[in-house]
Every structure is written in C-alpha cells, then in structure tokens.
Amino acid sequence: MIKPSIPSGTRDFGPVVVRKRNYIFQTIRSTFEVYGFQPLETPAMENLSTLTGKYGEEGDKLMFRILSNNDDKLAAAKAAASNKEMSSILSDKALRYDLTIPFARYVVMNQQELTLPFKRYQMQPVWRGDRPQKGRYREFYQCDADVVGSNSLLNEVELLLIYDTVLTRLGLQGYELRVNNRKILSGLAEVIGKQELLTDITISIDKLDKIGAEGVRKELAARGLTDADITTIEQFLAISGTSEEKLAQLKTLLAASETAQKGIEELSFVINSGYAPFNTAPIIDVTLARGLNYYTGMIVEVKAPATVKMGSIGGGGRYDDLTGMFGMKGTSGVGISFGVDRIYDVLEELKLFPEATQQSTKVLFLNLGEASARAAFSYMMQLRARGIAAELFHESAKMDKQMKYADKRGIPYVVILGESELQENLLSVKNLVSGQQEKVSAAAFAEMTF
Amino acid sequence: MIKPSIPSGTRDFGPVVVRKRNYIFQTIRSTFEVYGFQPLETPAMENLSTLTGKYGEEGDKLMFRILSNNDDKLAAAKAAASNKEMSSILSDKALRYDLTIPFARYVVMNQQELTLPFKRYQMQPVWRGDRPQKGRYREFYQCDADVVGSNSLLNEVELLLIYDTVLTRLGLQGYELRVNNRKILSGLAEVIGKQELLTDITISIDKLDKIGAEGVRKELAARGLTDADITTIEQFLAISGTSEEKLAQLKTLLAASETAQKGIEELSFVINSGYAPFNTAPIIDVTLARGLNYYTGMIVEVKAPATVKMGSIGGGGRYDDLTGMFGMKGTSGVGISFGVDRIYDVLEELKLFPEATQQSTKVLFLNLGEASARAAFSYMMQLRARGIAAELFHESAKMDKQMKYADKRGIPYVVILGESELQENLLSVKNLVSGQQEKVSAAAFAEMTF
C-alpha cells in the first residue's frame, strides 16, 4: 500500500481555505460584474496548435502536455528522430497556460456573434511546470478582465478603477497602482537613437532597485551605450515629483520622440483625466517594463502594501493586436489580472479575512435518542428553509461527544431537546461562544437569528 | 494560419451559458451548505498511483495522462517493451477522473486533522477520454456531496432530501428519486442459492424496460438459472403497490436471507422513517443496480421528469469501505452526485431558467462627447457603488450605434445626458423594454431601482 500523495506543486484546499478563497473570488467577480464585464469559461485543454509559440520557448517547455493513448502514436513515437519530434507525436493537446490566449482564440472563433467591445472576465486555474517553491505552484488560478475591440482609454481608466475597487473592498490599504506606457520606453530608446536596444535598456532600468544607479550605469555601458546615452537614461530615471511634474519632465526630456509624446498623452489621460475617483491614486513609474514583448500602450502593476514582503499582486496592459496570431487583425485588447494566491497570503498576513467568510453550520441539534431526533429534525428543516445551515448529530451519542463535534467544527449554537424540553414543548438553545443557555418556545425559535 | 479550434469533446461557455450554469451550481452549493456540508477542492492532476485501477480497465484507458517533459524519460520510453510500459514511463500523473477517489485520498492524507463524520461537497470538472457524442463530453463538471465516517442512515435520508430540495428549488416537477439497497439484490441471489451470479442477475433485471419480461427470462436461462430460480426472480420483479406493500412483499419473498432483511429494514428507514418531509417521495425500484461494484447499502438514482427524454440526472449510494484502498480501513461513506450538464438540458427544454440568471449590465450611459461622458461617469460610479452593473459607452459615437450595443447586449435601461439634460441638471432614462423615457433629477436617479 503506497501512502497517498498529490503531485508536487499542487494543493488540496480544505473547507477553511476554500471559503477564504471564495471570498476573494466573489469580491473580484462581483466587481467585474458591476463594471459590465461578462463571464467566460474555456476548456482546461487546448490544442497544441493554439498554445505553441505563444509563451516563448520557456512556455513551450513548461506546458503540461496530454499524452495520446492511441497505440499507433506510441509506435510512431519510438521511431522519432528527436525528443522534440517524439513529444509532438505523443501529444496534440496541453493544459491551459494562461487565460489570455484562450480568450483570443475564443474571440476569433466567435467573432460573428460577439458584440464589440467585448468585456469578458475569466477565473479559472492554469498549469505551468515551473519548479515548485514557496508561493509558486504548478496549478493556480488566474482572474482576468479584458476588453477587446476598443481603443478608448476609458477602458484603461476603468480597469485601474477595478483594481482600486477590489483592493479597497478587500480592506487593503497602502497598495500601489504603478502605471507606465510602453510608448514612453520606446520613445526613450528612440531619443537615444538605439531602438534596437529597447529591451536591453529596460532590463537594466528594471534592476534599479536591486543594483542601484551605479550598477545600472555599468550594465548600460557594457550593453554598448555611450556616456551621452547613459546621461539621458539617468535623466529619465531621475524624473520625480507629483504626477503632473513627472509628466512635464517627460515631455521635455523626450520632446524629440513623437511616440513618446503619444505615450505621455495616454498616460496623462489614464491617471489624470479626472474621470476616476480613485481611493488610491495611481503612481507613474517610468521603470515599469513588464510584458514588453506584447504590451503596446499602458502597462500596470499592482504592488502589495509595503508592510508585507510580497511584491506584485496583479498586472496588465494594452496589447494592440490581441487576435492577430489567430488571423483576426487590428483588434486591440486591454486587460488586467489578479494574483489570487498572493492576495490570499497578503490578507492572511494582515488578518483581513472577515470572520463571516467562515460561516458554516450555525446550529447543531443534539441527538438524544429517537424522540429527540425526530423533533430536532423537524426544527432543523425549518432553519434550513430559512437559509440557516443546521445539522442534527448523526447518531444518538453521549452529550460530551456531540458537544466536542460542535466545538471542533466551530458551530456556535447547540439545540438540546431533552425529555423535559419535549414535554414542555420548548427548546434549549446554548450559545457556545458566550456559554449562555436559554429555553425558548417553538414560535420564538422560528424567529431567532443565529 | 490554422483556423483556431478546441479539442473534440470540450466546450467554451460564453456569458449566457456561464450564467445559467452558475445558477444551477449556486442552487446546489447553497443547499449543500444549508445541510452542513463543507467545500473541498482537489488538484486537477493526481498521481497515477492514486488513480490507476480504481475505475476498472476502461477507466485506466480513458484517463487523460500528463506527458512527462523529462528528456531522460523520453529516451527510456523508446526502449520500452510494450505500449503499456511505454505509457507508464512517459507519464506519472493523470487528470481527475471523478471526485470520489480524490476525496478518499484527501480523507486518508488528512485523517489526523479531520473531524468525523466529515460532510464534504465538491464541484469541479473531471476529464474522461470517452468518444464524444451528444450530451457526452470529455470535460464535464461533477457536483458531489459525501459523508465519510458515519454508518447512520440519517445520512441517506439527508442526501435524498438534498436531491429533493435542489430539484424543487430549480422548479422541476415530476422527477423521481428511485432507491434500492444492494443488500436486497444480494439477498435475492442468496435466496436462489447463486450468489456468484449476482452481477449476471442484476444485469438482466436492469434490462427489463428494454427487453421485457420474456427477454429477461431468456437471458437468465442462458446464464444458467433454473426455472425455479427464474420464478423467484419474476416474483421479485412483480413486486408492486405502495412502498409499504413493496416492503411487505420483499420481506416475505426474501424471508430466507438475513442480508435481504437487513436491506429491507434499511430501505424502509430511508424512505419511510417519517423524518423527511419530501416534496416528491422516493420510489422503491428493486431493479436499480447502478454501482454494484462498490455500493454496499442504499443505491439511488434520480430520473428527469418523464416529459423530457433524459434519463438519469443524478445518482449515488453507500460504500462501506471508501478509504480502504488507501490503507484506512473500516470507514464508511455515502454520497450523491448531480449531473449538471443533463440538468442544464432539462431546465432549458422546460424553460425553467429564471430570467434573473441573465442579469448583467442594467444601465448603459450614452457617450455624447466629453462633457456628457464626464457627467455620465460620475453617475455610473454611483450606480456601481450601489451594486448596479452599469457601463458608459466606450467612445463618443452616433446614438444609433450606442443603442444597438444596448440592444445586442440586452441592457434594459439607457441614460442620456445631452446638452439640455446637462443644462437642466437632469437625466433622461429610457426603458428599452417598454420604450418609455422620463427625465429625472439627480436625487431621484440616486433612488431608482433597475
């Protein structure tokens, strides 16, 4: 007999954790809904032709592929010339790696019926064969909201507001909505005259926190940038002050780039349009360069409150050609994603889960023999009809044992229908938190709240 | 460019369908909760050692295995002597095939912390490589409730009540809760003196509807049963009348079998205990033999209303040794499962989905230029704060185009903030269903329900 286990990097979620996770999901979902987003669900498996090449070489490697159980394919695989060929014979499907590609695939497949702009949200697990470590799992949920088919910057504003609304509703304070625009970074490379080094430049810039200004300078020099280039980049990194001041400095520094000016204008609208009554105003962060391979406009990253060491708890941006890879050109998308596992850890650390998330059985009816059980069953069904979760102990047993069950399960009320209660037609209701016990009539019981 | 597609047997669920499915899930979930069941979620992938051999040979074949992407394993697989060996080298994980085995695995892994009886529910997709056909998919949801660690028949009563409650809440009438007990079928074989033919007998009995009494007689004879045996079986099949009458007839016919008497007693308690105020009383069906490989007590099957050709929409039973396969002996389980896809089809056919399941965006604010959009945005945020889903059209466009969007999306109200409304500080609210339009003050708007 092998001791049962689960695959490394995966998790069971017991009742307490499921309820806490559902609280997060429900907060996100109801916010998406109130903003007019619509739910979508796609299959766990996608054809490899849909997924391959969409996540870089690393992604292709980390995808979980489904093994064909067709005997012919096994035979053919044996004759394969390379491991790569062997894999491709053995498998034509893989598990969902993110929610964006399946969304793009869905939009293209259903373009005839969809009303654009299509605002969809999707909350489903994805699978990645990363090496498991603290906070990194092979199965985890993504919660995405995307708008496809609209170039309007109002979408960016609304998506930032969704972050702000959800995090506020979760009771978080001190989170940061950091925003940037890809066009500003492109403009910087353009001003220097080295657009081909955009990625090199942003990778170095991104390390500012870790390696400091001197470190960045060294790296940039090593990557072939001149002193003059580096001076411009340092001026770029030195941008500071209020959002208005930052925007003004950017405008001057990147005056030579039309692209940059467009990016500054977009950024200005997104954080500064006056449309949005943010609880926590977004912050311009010109070093923010996530998703540079696909984002073309706004880039956003959400940082957990500084009091918890967690880093990013969400991110997103605009990608001008979301569906082009599936043959539907010129359709722009913009979206955000919530990192639910990390948000969970943040709420846990800050003790922000409301007690109500653990509402489970409210009332346990003790089982004190058949007459008691029959009376209890009837009262219990009344509570359930009122939407109050109730249980009758499964068997007639010593009171001690039943009270212990209530205690272990965290059930706050116990109802006792002993001989005297049955004779008097009353119920004894004990509050296990306060220890108080009272006898009530059936009529009074029918009105009690728990 | 390959036209994108999804794997055969899988489905995308668009907004309308997700909302209808969520209505079913939510009805089931809230009923499970009110009966004191607790949520559990297990990983999509399980180790093959957990799954293999648990679902018969067919199950092992239909499981979706995960291909290892370890290059050493690919090389080793090439040298494998058989396809079976090759598969087992290439894969050590597979996708969840049902929810019962992962539940048993979870119970065994967490036995130290669990309070027994443990009443859990689980609503997650499972994957099976069946040949896809109408109503049969390779990815589908199961919704299970099980109690582990209690022999009390009160659990059976409660599980039947859950079926009754859920189906009633879904607005279904005319469904049938058919119940039987494995011990009664065993007792029949025992009375005949041919316990080894139990499976043969029940397979034939199960075909009564299809092949008629004469067909059953022929089959039984072919399986080696004597005329006397067949006469007993025919008497068994002829049992009829009210539940009390059926139970009395069974008692007499199977008087010689202690096992049968125990089964009759259990069945009597389950359907006849007087505990349960069923909306639709369970029916004794002595031919019911599903899950005979694992069920040891009650067997239940739920039939859709006869007006829809659907057959079973749920089923379950008691299995005396749920966790024995993972080394934890003597722990009994009893559970039920809802067939959500079929329930969906039944509700669709009978037009039982409430309109409210499609509640999405209630109010569209027209975008009539910047001044209008700014005012609209502010009113829109007020609605959202009140929990009312609202949208501002993403760009300033012709009114026609915006009205068409509202129409296609099924948004019932449109708010117009034209020049005159802005000047008068009023809002024009148009009900697109009735066609009525009225001008209201900001204060009145803040009180409106949609």
From TrEMBL, chains A, B:
Keyword Ribonucleoprotein: no
Main location class: cytoplasm
CDD domains per UniProt: HisRS-like_core, HisRS_anticodon
GO molecular function: ATP binding; histidine-tRNA ligase activity
Binding locations of L-histidine: 98-100, 128, 142, 146, 290, 294-295
GO cellular component, as recorded: cytoplasm
InterPro entries: aa-tRNA-synth_II, aa-tRNA-synth_II/BPL/LPL, Anticodon-bd, Anticodon-bd_dom_sf, His-tRNA-ligase, HisRS-like_core, HisRS/HisZ, HisRS_anticodon
Tree of life domain: Bacteria
Subunit-structure text: Homodimer.
Protein name, entry field: Histidine--tRNA ligase
Species of provenance: Chitinophaga solisilvae
Gene name per UniProt: hisS
